[in-house]
Amino acid sequence: MATMLAAVLEAPQRFRLEERAVPQPADDDVVIRVARCGICGTDLHIYRGHYAADRLPLVPGHEFAGTIAALGRNVRGLKEGDRVIADINVGCGHCFYCRRNEVLNCAGVSQIGIHRDGAFAGFVRVPARLVIGLPDTLDFAVAALTEPLACVVRAARRSRIGLGESVLVLGAGPIGNLHVQLARLTGAGPVIAADPDPARAALAREAGADAVITDPAAVAATVRSLTGGRGADIAIEGVGAAALYDTALSAIRPGGRIAAFGIAGADARWPMPVLDMVLKETGLQGSVAGMGEDMHIALNLLALGRIRTEAFTANVYPLADMTAAMERFATDRTAFKVQIAA
């Protein structure tokens, strides 16, 4: 039986490189030969033991692109060699939530690379119904950005970003950068990014932010000065820090909205000023994973070159250097994004 290399996270902060059998497809599955897989902030939370620790040992990795290597006997419309990505959210497919494209609320949901083995390996098995074909001209490195961009697409759709609305993005890391780019694409303005890191702030400006704030104490006042004294229509919390919700609330206008996006610890709490939120008709909308049509929208934007991707594809490590790649992503703020080439 053919074998592959897999990076198994056996305990927090401890990867083991393992030679294991290439997965075989069940009747309704395909097996994808992984070409590229990005390291996500969620992967970092898993690596540190803050998220999905009960699933270890696990092969993480969910931002992947590659080619079909094998198909289950019931699979139609796909063939070996097809260039593909996949929706990582595996629900039952027929419950109330799956029908509404709210798959994460399905009682039986699991996510590839988070709850079941993912793509920090030579091959990954996925349900064929979740596979999405790639344009021949789209590079695998860019295609592997579809999943994180889909998460941002979903957040923009659920928070209803509109033409001419002012948007504050709190956090200008990789996901924050995508929030900036997508807000600009939707016609929002001004688009304001806030991050104390000068390098990431500079990348946000290059990505299209109309203004960038690097002083955390100046966020609310600066946003008001850029929005006619009102505050932003929408603030997106993209870090996962409970304290930033106070910043978001202070920076939005009466009647404004907060998009809750960043992954926080299970014990993180934000004491909401309930009366103030009621009287000002403040909106609060959570969003986390792109799924279904979000993936197709994201792929279309990438294929059309609407998203600047250079900073996301510059740092590539072989699978054999998985620990070094993860540690660099965790500690080197200049490594905006890291991808694994399996």
H-E string: EEEHEEEHEEEHHEHEHEHEHEHEHEHE
Mean pLDDT: 95
Annotated CATH architecture of the largest domain: Alpha-Beta Complex
Query: Helix tally?
Result: 11
**CATH level-4 homologous superfamily of the largest domain:** Medium-chain alcohol dehydrogenases, catalytic domain
Percent of residues in β-strands: 25-35%
Termini, distance in Å? 19 Å
SSE class: alpha/beta
The main sheet comes to: 7 strands, mixed
| Low-confidence sequence ranges | none
SSE blueprint:
Layout: E1 3-11, E2 14-21, E3 29-38, H1 41-47, E4 63-71, E5 83-86, E6 89-90, H2 96-99, E7 110-111, E8 123-127, E9 131-133, H3 140-143, H4 146-158, E10 167-170, H5 174-185, E11 191-194, H6 198-206, E12 211-213, H7 219-226, E13 232-237, H8 243-251, E14 252-260, H9 274-279, E15 283-286, H10 293-303, E16 315-318, H11 322-331, E17 338-341
Parallel strand pairs: 10-11, 10-13, 11-12, 13-14, 14-15, 16-17
Antiparallel strand pairs: 1-2, 3-4, 3-8, 3-17, 4-5, 5-9, 6-7
Helix pairs in contact: 4-5, 4-10, 7-8
Summarize the structure.
This protein has 342 residues and is α/β, with parallel strands linked by helices.
What does this structure look like?
This protein has helices spanning 41-47, 96-99, 140-143, 146-158, 174-185, 198-206, 219-226, 243-251, 274-279, 293-303, 322-331; strands at residues 3-11, 14-21, 29-38, 63-71, 83-86, 89-90, 110-111, 123-127, 131-133, 167-170, 191-194, 211-213, 232-237, 252-260, 283-286, 315-318, 338-341. The chain is α/β, with parallel strands linked by helices and 342 residues long. Strands 3, 4, 5, 8, 9, 16 and 17 form a 7-stranded mixed beta sheet that branches. The chain has a 6-stranded parallel beta sheet with strand order 12-11-10-13-14-15, with helices on both faces. A two-stranded antiparallel sheet has the order 1-2. Helix 4 (146-158) packs across helix 5 (174-185), helix 4 packs across helix 10 and helix 7 (219-226) packs parallel to helix 8. The longest helix has 13 residues, at 146-158. The two termini are 19 Å apart.
